[in-house]
Amino acid sequence: MVAIVGKPNVGKSTLLNALVGQKISITSRKAQTTRHRITGIRTEGATQFVFADTPGFQTRHSTALNKSLNKAVMGTIGDVDVVMLVVEAGRFTPADAKVLGLLKPGIPVVLVANKLDEVGRRAELAPWLQEVAAKAQFAEIVPMSAKNPKDVQRVFGILEKYLPEQPWFYGEDELTDRSEKFLAGETVREKLFRFTGDELPYTSTVVIDKFEEEPSPKFGRMVRIAATIVVERDGHKAMVIGEKGERLKRIGMEARQELEKLMDCKVFLEVWVKVRSGWADDEARVRSFGYE
Questions:
Q1: Last residue of a domain, one of 160, 194, 217
Q2: Same domain, 67 and 212
Q3: CATH number at residue 265
Q4: In a domain, 51, yes or no
Q5: Residue 145 belongs to a domain with what CATH number?
Q6: Which domain of life is it from (predicted)?
Q7: Helix 180-196 and helix 246-263: axis angle, to 10°?
Q8: Same-domain status, 188 and 260
């Protein structure tokens, strides 16, 4: 069991997808894209790696939603064999230090200096690495880019040393413990963030109202999905729908195409938008929308 932790936007989900070899965790430039613990599985030879991608630890706001996200992080880091603390290569911020402070003693921590491809001058990295090494007893420090397949492959060899010998938890070809219904909601949410950019507050979410499988002589397998995008204000609703409904149409179309690839079947997807003001501050509603 390997936890992937770090502050928001350091590339944790991109790293998880690269390690698993398939996209199972959504990504966008928006901070706080990941909101749940997502387990990714990769079996290499005799070793099974079970990765838990966590939400970025929130230090700034204390809404009911953020408390739930932080709880998901804290619940994950206690019961793993090794922790990957992901930071941006060349930067170690007070928010990174705060996440480091949460980690429990006794569990080895591998510091991953990610986004190496964005570092202008590699020569400047050496003094930074020395500086970072002095901050804690890291088991290893790994400068890498999640976009570089050789770097990703190297990580397996590094992590393997810290894993116990025991039977595998999952089948050899399993990639995640999350259901298709969960992945459908996440895929719609990713497209929502991608097409609204920074205009839309991160407190928008997606609820799957219907996920029904139907036999289909024409397609073999067919799934009907109804999803609701939940926003906090009427202005946000108009923004998501876009002029003449174009933006909402595009969100639905791209999500459907990606889900057809992911689930290898025909997908019919309907997407609606509803306003629920203040939901991110309402504990009962946060829970009802599927957060821990």
A1: 160
A2: no
A3: 3.30.300.20
A4: yes
A5: 3.40.50.300
A6: Bacteria
A7: 140
A8: yes
Specify the number of domains making up the chain: 2
* Residue span of the structural domain in which 114 resides: 2-160
Per DSSP bridges, beta strands 220-231 and 205-216 are antiparallel
For the chain, how many helices (H) and strands (E)?
9, 9
Q: Does one domain contain both 120 and 75? A: yes
Q: What is the maximal distance between C-alpha atoms in the chain?
A: 63
Report the sign of the C-alpha dihedral through residues 97, 78, 5, 122, in that order. positive
Give the model's pLDDT for residue 263: 83
The pairing of strands 266-275 and 220-231 is: parallel
Question: Taking 90 as the threshold, does the pLDDT of residue 158 lie above it?
Answer: yes
- The pTM of this model reads 0.69
CA-based end-to-end distance of the chain: 20
In the annotated binding site for GTP, the residues are 6-13, 53-57, 114-117
Q: Are 126 and 189 members of one domain?
A: no
For residues 154 and 26, state if they share a domain. yes
Cβ proximity of 16 and 27 under 8 Å: no
Alpha helices in 27-176 (DSSP H): 64-77, 94-102, 125-133, 149-160
Give the C-alpha separation, 188 to 255, whole Å: 5
pLDDT digits (tens, 9 = 90+) for 22-52: 777 756 554 444 445 667 889 998 999 999 8
Please check whether residue 49 is in contact with residue 42, taking contact to mean a CB–CB distance below 8 angstroms: yes
40 contacts 19 by C-beta, under 8 angstroms:
yes
